[in-house]
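Homework-ish question, so no full write-ups if that breaks the rules, but can someone show me the predicted structure for this set?
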Amino acid sequence: MITYIVRRILLMIPTLLGITVMVFLIVRFAPGNPVAAPRDAGAISSESRAAVEAYYEKKLGLDQPIWRQYFNWWRSMFSAEIDAPAWTDEPEPRPIYIVGDATGASAESTRTLLVKGADGQWVQFVAINTDGTPQARIVGRSRRAQLSGTFIPLDEQINENEIHRYRYSATVFAVTLGQSQTSRTTVMHELRRRLPITLLINVIALALIYVIAIPTGVVMAVKRGGRFDVGSNALMLGLWSVPIVLAATVFVGYLTTGGAGVPWFPNHGLSSIDAERLPFFAWLGDRAWHLVLPVICITYGGFAYLAKQMRAAVLDNLTMEYVRTARAKGVSSRDVVLHHVLRNSVLPLITMFATLLPYLIGGSVIIEKIFNIEGMGLFTFRAVMNRDYDVVQAMALIAGVLNMTGILLADIAYAVVDPRIAFE
Amino acid sequence: MPNRFTIKDLLFLLIGLVVCLLLFLNMVKTNREVEALAGVEEALQDQAATLQELIHAIADPTDGARVMFRDSFPAVPTEALASDITFSSPSSAVNRRGLDQQWQTAPDSQLPADFAPGGTIIHIRNAEPATLTPFVARDSYANDIHADVFEKLCWRDLDPPFHYVPGLARSWIVSDDGLELVFHLFPNARWSDGKPVTADDVIFTLDLVLNERVDAPMPRSLLADNVADYAALDRHTVRFRMQRPYFDAVGICGNLLWILPRHIYGEFEAETYNSRIGDLCVGSGPWLVESWDRGRQLVLKRNANYWGPKPALNKQVLRFITGELAELQEFWAGNADIIGPTEEQWIVYADDLRLKERGRAISYYTPLRGYYFFGYNLRLGKFADKRVRQALTMLLDRQAMIDTLRGGLGRIVTGPFYFGSDQYDTTIEPWPYDPDRARQLLGEAGWSDTNGDGVIDNDLDGDGAREPFQINFLAARSNLHERYQRYVQAQFKQAGIKVNLDQLEWSVFEQRLVSRDFEMIVMAWTGNPETDAFAMWHSSQVIDQGSNIVGFVNDEADRLIEQARQTMEYEPRMELWRQFHRLLHVEQPYTFLFTGPRLTFIDQRFKNVQRRSLRLYTSEWYVPADLQRR
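A: Not a homework solution, just the prediction itself:
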């Protein structure tokens, strides 16, 4: 089993490389280019346009050969320039403070001073040159660092406790997944902000789908042909055939404040404007109130498919020999279904879960767009529209990784659930 | 049997219950704490508001004094340069600053009875700025904030004819040949930290933008194309030399850049400057960035040390909410004071009683809004004849398009200029909707249906074979564009012209424009108070991806544009632009369609809301004391 998993993970590496190449090429050869987005839309003379385009092409590295761009992408996914505190979580990054008499250090001085930077990394000042330029290195993960800022000459009187501001720049190893040109942060930074939002909605929705669909499917199978079976079948198929776009638009149009119908639900976002100042329970209520419509939109379509799968699997198993044996030896009908049949029927659901994993994190573009929820889906959508290469590539890559992980997890889960399956 | 309930099970159950209970109690406790905190916060806000009122009461007399000083403009040094063409009179400066200046300088008796300083205005923005660093930021969201936080050497007047009025510069002089400009700064201008604004800061700003490492290619290319050099003559005087005479030299030198304080921005390396997001927004304007809660809101507060006349309002909150429906909802709920409704919302609600209770609806035509047009690729034989283009325009009932496709919101325009400006020749009558005359013109140009298939044809290349009149009509994807396209398709069909529709997303559409790979397009240009026709209409801009997309080449037009661009005097230049306008009207390289109004819903608490032509000017608004938001 362990060797199987290891082999699978090792196999993922070449697959992953293939995915990156494919994603990269598809994005590069798609029509449109990212230079159009930053340029202003107004009229522009051809000289200015040429200058501006050349600038952006150079800045985005589009003037380089394509294989070079591919490697640049890899590099930008795993390195960060930390002279820019753009990737701290704070809107206003803390400056680096040098406390004490560091500015008074002379050329011979080799005293060591540790300073904590905006990104939480420690900078170590090892020496300061006579011309005033300091040398510094970052202790920890960084590879190179420079300190910028003016040093006060030795003869100037300064208060010992005065605080001076300095900045440094360095390229360090960090999983940034690339730079977003439109939001001017790293993809990782945006992920950290948006992933919880998307996860919240989708985890609730998924849990609901499974909690409702599994029992329904079982009951439908047990009472096959009965009124419940036919009725719920029809209802679920009906729901399944309503497109999410339509349902969401109708909900927003008729069930929300500001719409044409009844103002029962809010029409955008995941919380009210001043929600974080609300007491805990009021906040929870507010959040739940905002979640109702989006979650309904995501779940209703899932019931039909999952419940029908469940029904088919249970029906399959009910005709098996072991069920008859169990019945024959006097096990109650209820126990047969709950203990024997159910366990054997969840296999197809596991397969389904594997395909749902990327969807969980990728988010639903439609729902997030219509309800204006700033999650992953909306972020990806905007990136595609603006040709924000790094973001599109990163999101496609993440989807690929999740897909592979999902399939692997499903295979492992098979082995756990079904003792007949063994990967040896 | 393993299923017996044992002591162990009981213990586990108990522990589980206790944990749940503790968790619940903890939640209750947190809840109480937050409630208590909210109470404290409210009390604090009350106190802060009281303090603010006190500060206002104390500060107001000095405001008046400062404004009085601004009112009396020091004499312009006459010995410096010969003529003084664009110098703005002090009276127009008062105009720009609007009534707030009059109030603050005026004796109390002249103020409206309910005038009171203070109050908050809440705006809704559909997205937040990517960065607040000036010049690096390119979106309009950042631009709006910069207009409050920073100042330029001069501004455009808010009403026609949009002359330049003093900003940081109290006056300026343009030499006769238009090659040299001297700006005199207000000696009392101050940064928000109280340090004086000097010529050195202006030079610093120019250096910064021209630095190749700074991420500001747009203003850099404009400066580099026009300005030869610049220098500080003394502490409060800056001189620019232009590479060639240019009619909007004052705009390039004085109205292009926000002036930045050297003592703050000078500390940064270019790379750092480019990548900082929230904290590099410090200027000399009447507002300060107080806080930016990313993804939620940005708060501007009144600059208590502002050197000029201060706005009456105390705070501006910009809430970031996406979605037009959401925006309207927040307005109804009282969570937003000013919103820009969509055209559909305007049509439904502008006369609605609900709105009348809540506030008022203001619509105005600004030159910034620009105009819609259908462009024809003149490189193609079928569009080369101006009679054909005139005919195509006359096949379209533009007023009907406004009434049915745009809910009546719009005004027909006949040329590329703002209809309220002196550039625009108001005597030009729009081409009438006249399908008969259009068909006649098409016939004169050689188009007729010879084979009876319902599509007119013509032998354009002279090879004896007649080609049918078919147009591929391209648009960037939007509902409005699609409505226009369908209308055109139906109208042109009546005259025997077949139109194929195609919609592309913007970035692909844009590429097609650049490669000139289109036949007919629908698009809109944004406008300016005085539009320079060069980029869109000069023959030199046909090649190399210039903005002369349709490929309009006309010697007379070139001559008029070149001459107008070099003419520094206002009236003669306007006459040249009007001539150019008349020429374009006859040539019809575009079918000029219409311009749309800017729409606003404003909460009724705000008084003295004036309808301005350039943009609404919140600094002249006030809220009576009893209506102010806490």
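Now go work out the reasoning yourself. Hint: The beta strands of chain A are 79-81, 96-99, 113-116, 122-128, 134-139, 142-148, 163-173.
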